[in-house]
Sequence to fold (424 residues):
Amino acid sequence: MFIDVAKIELKAGKGGDGAVSFRREKYEPSGGPYGGDGGNGGSIYLVASNSIRTLMDFRYKRHYKAENGENGGTKKMYGKKGEDLYLKVPVGTLVKDFDSDRVIHDMKEDGEVFLICKGGRGGRGNAKFASSTRQAPRFAEPGTKGQERTIKLEIKLLADVGLVGLPNVGKSSILSIISEAKPKIANYHFTTIEPNLGVVKVGEGESFVIADIPGLIEGASEGVGLGFDFLKHIERTKVLVHVLDASGSEGRNPVEDYNTIRKEMLSYNIKIADKKEIIVANKMDIEGAKEGLEKIKKAFPDKIDEIIEMSAATTEGIDKLKYKIWEYIKDIKLEYETYDEEYIPFEEEAEPDYEVTVREGNTFIVTGPLIDDLVYRTNFEDYEALRHFQKVLDDKEVFKKLKELNIGNGDLVIVGEMEFEYFD
Fold:
């Protein structure tokens, strides 16, 4: 089993600003507010897909940003909404809050879509603020910021591909070249005592998990050596890559080696015969390898198209092997191991609209998301905008709360980043 983890930073698009505009048409001497609303910022969605097998792409790009909304225009024209961003993740990916490690969502089903970062709201144009008492508002709202989030993606994968073969035929070397894995490599038997796994990148959104499966010797199906443990890993892979020492550098016959391993696998589970198999004639750079290759081709004439010549020492043939594997597995449905442990889905605690606190010196502080948003949206140099600001505070009973806390004339009120003197 392979645990794949990626940390990514997300930023949804900012909403477009509302426009301040007035009609300037013939026969319309009084004009009137004509500014349109800004477009909403783009949101970021995660999409579960069976076509994505690992999180490798997120290791190369860690920052993602959705498009901002366009500003509003004259003639009450709305700004264009920012384009949403969709990120594909493998089915079975757990989405976690990076700081708390709490689970936000489990991407279980192919095609499942989850909103992870919501885009900012577009600001209203001045046309929306016209009323019977405010016929020519000279202010509009700016758009709000989009959500920002740092998340951790985590998935437990089973290997797609298993490298099999007798000890010292070059499996670990092939794994180290074809993937990012760094297995221990040495020229003696049983170098590998546990499966080494690596992720192989083929192209954009195309990757697979490969495992070097060690411990296979004659008698493995009867429990000799590490047989039972690693035959189980072979059972769970989709494609087998059977590595042979074509040079016979240890005095062995590659055809006999193949038959030995094949016999052990089928003795353990006859269904292994149904798996796709690629035969790798390795060590082609060593003297005697050409003769060994001819023996392999003669012994398996029906497998000629599945025989790949290569040298782990020179890396010749490694790309051919990589693309051959991908040809076999790209249409096979992804499998993943579910999380057995129970988890409590992450729920962000809803902040109160605002809160009022008092500190020494008769200073009253009003804070909260409502206040931050209101301050951000208000042009304090415009009289009508300032009146609108006060009306919102009155509607939300901020002034009532201040009176309950015994505020007096001349006391300092801090609202967001702005400071005012209070007068009743």
Remarks:
- The domain at 2-156 is CATH 2.70.210.12 (Spo0b-associated Gtp-binding Protein; Chain: A,).
- The first strand starts at residue 2 and ends at 11.
- The CA atoms of residues 30 and 44 lie 44 Å apart.
